[in-house]
Structures are given as structure tokens and as C-alpha cells.
Amino acid sequence: MTPIPDRALAEALALATDLFARLATATADPPGVTRASYGEGEMIAQRILTEAAQGLGLDVTTDAIGTLRMVLPGRDRSLPAVVMGSHLDSVPHGGNFDGAAGPIIGVAIAAALRAMGHVPQRDLLILGIRAEEMCWFPAHYLGSRALFGLLPKQAPDTLRRVDTGRTLAEHMADQGLDPTPIREGRALLDPAHIACFIEPHIEQGPVLVEEGFPVAVVSGIRGSLRYPQAKALGAHAHAGAVPRRHRRDAAMATVRLIATLDDRWARLESAGADLVCTTGILATDPAHHTSTKIPGVVRFSLDIRSLDAALLAELDGWLTEEAARIGAARGVSFDFGPPTHAAPALMDPGLRALLMRSAAAAGVPAREMASGAGHDCATFAGLGVPSVMLFLRNEHGSHNPDEALDMADVGAGLAVLVPAVREKLA
């Protein structure tokens, strides 16, 4: 693999450092940043990236649904493009790097190629994708699925942003965008015209920090079995007056179900299964609960993730059976509510090998690992596009204002990605 001149890598890192700093300042919402999906912060991020891309001489456009497209033109523009990017929205008061690392590093790679005087054989297309964070609109991978015509056709008029109560179509109209392609199920990007998709992203857990690796090549993105609005229905009663045999205690039943899931998780994990389980919401009704009342209603969530689609399907059926068994024993009924499942996405073996080979050539320590979080890359992989992610070491996790991506690790990521992208562009 041909080495990249130090000067080109230095120029790319300087640009990325500047863009991260500008983005943090412009979208600050103490204690972190806020870039709401189809909101002001996301638009500010697009303007900052647009200015940088135009300064490099890239072709910059925005499509009907608001996807930012930045193109380093190739010699033969009829060839399928190498596509990079990620989302520009954030969670409320979140960190500056989750998502934004993708398009910023993509633009920095274009800067490195320009500095080398390299004109690629095919286009490099860098995307600033809209609306990936589910905290704003209740739909996973909203922007990337919309890009390929995969959202339900009614989505613009039925999806409402959590903080405003207004529809996706209304928020799009505020920005002069057109929801018609979504309503028609029309793709704005053809998978057949994509040679591969590469998404740089911060790691959102502690593994790289703990093990001392600056980067990791992602082996796959875990699928999810999600029930965000589950509830147990029993009966409110006096805490002191009702014997155990007569109780319909929703809290005890819910705790039993969660504990049973945790036991199953431990057994599966010890047998080598890829699995994580979370109950992020667990609450009695504050309008009715008190320390002297048996709770009749408990609301909770279940989020189960794995690279193994068959295991997720098996656990889905098992949960239904366990809920029925526990409910019958305790006089409680479980209603899991509407699911929001996502399929696992395995990364392309050839691209994984390319990034590991590039890391070795650059002298950058790297390992492979699964992604527990969902990413737009899963949409591309699900369409059969050869796809891969590169994680960058990041302290303090993500979805919080303490995200800490060291620019030296951005430099390591560039040292891996620039030669790999140049090879795929040839």
C-alpha cells in the first residue's frame, strides 16, 4: 500500500480539527451541543461543512429531503462512487463527535487527496445524512432510509418530533425541503451506483480506551429487538392489607421478567453468544404511586441487541412465553406495545481486510469489534452495498457532553483511511 505524504495527512488533520472546533462553538447548548433532526443545529452543521467543501473545490448540493452531498469528482463519473459519511444531528446536550466525525473526516480525506494532486478514477461522495438520532423522531435511521425510499410513505405526516409535536413534513417545510420523495417511496440514491460505503465514527463504549487501541474495524452492527413502550397491568391495592396470594403486583411481575431475562443473558453470554440487554425505562405511575400502595401499572422498555438475527427472533418468542407464564402466576398481564426492531448488518469482509491491512501499513494499532449501537451504515449494508465502519477511540462514551475524541486519534484514523479510500477510488 503506497504511503501517504506526511504533508497531506497534516493538512487533512488541521482541517478536521478546525471543523470540529467550529461545530462545537456554533451548536453549543451547555453543557454539550444540540443539533436537532431537521432543526437549527443540524442546519448549522450543514452550512459549516458546505463552506469547507466548497473551499476545497468539491461539488456541493442538497437533495430534496435535505441530504448534504459533497463530491470530489473522478475521471470517469459514470463509475459507481465510493461513498463516505454519517449523520450531523445529535442528542439534546450531547457530545460534539457522535455522527459528525463521519462527514468531517470524509471532507478531510478529500483535502488530503487534493493536497497530493490525486484525481481519482471514480467519484468520492461524502454525505451529511439527516435525522439518525431516534430521540427526535421515533424512527430508526430516518435520514438514510428516506434517502433510499425505505421509509413508510405516510412517515412525513405521521412522524412527529418529540420536542415540538410537529410532523416531519412541517419541519422539512421550514427548511424549504420536499417530503414528496418519501411519500412516493422514491429513492434519491441508487445502491447500484455505490461501489462501497465507509463510515468513520467514534466508538460509543469503553473498549478502545480500555485496551489501548486508537481505532477499530467494525465487524458488524448489532440488530435490535426493541419494545420502548412496554407495560405490566395488575391492580392497585393497599400495601398492608392484601396477602401475597391475592396481589396483582405489576412491579414484582416486571422485576421478575427482567431478572429472568438477565439470567438468560448470562447463560447465553457464557456460551459465547453476542448479546446485550437493557431496560432503560422502569417506572410506576407518579400520578398514583406511593410507598403504601401495591402498584397496578408499571411502564418499562426492553432493548436487546445481537449480531445474530436468529437469536433475536428466538428471544422474541421466549419473551412472549415468559411474560405469559409470569403474568399468569402473578395475576398480571404484559403488553409489550409496538416494536421498533432493526436487523443486524454484517460488514464487508474485503473492506474489513483492507482497513486492517492499511492500519498495519501505517503502523496504527487496530482490532476488530462489533458495534452495539445502530448506524446509518446498516441501511447501506442492508441494501447489499459493501460497507464498513472505522471506530475512533473516544473517552466517556457518547450521547453525553463529555465525549472526548483526541485529535491524535483522528490523525491515526486518517492514516488508515486515506490510503484505503485512495485504493478504492482507483
TrEMBL record:
Top-level lineage group: Bacteria
Instruction: Kindly indicate whether the keyword Manganese belongs to this entry.
Output: yes
Q: Which InterPro entries match?
A: Amidase_Cbmase, Bact_exopeptidase_dim_dom, Peptidase_M20
Q: Which Pfam families match?
A: Peptidase_M20
Q: Which GO terms describe its molecular function?
A: hydrolase activity
Q: Does the keyword Metal-binding apply?
A: yes
Q: Which UniProt keywords apply?
A: Hydrolase, Manganese, Metal-binding
User: EC no.?
Assistant: 3.5.-.-
Q: Which cofactor does it need?
A: Mn(2+)
Give the family from UniProt. Belongs to the peptidase M20 family.
Description of how the protein assembles with itself and partners: Homodimer.
What's the protein called, per UniProt?
A: Hydantoinase/carbamoylase family amidase
What high-level taxonomic lineage is stated for the organism? Bacteria, Pseudomonadati, Pseudomonadota, Alphaproteobacteria, Acetobacterales
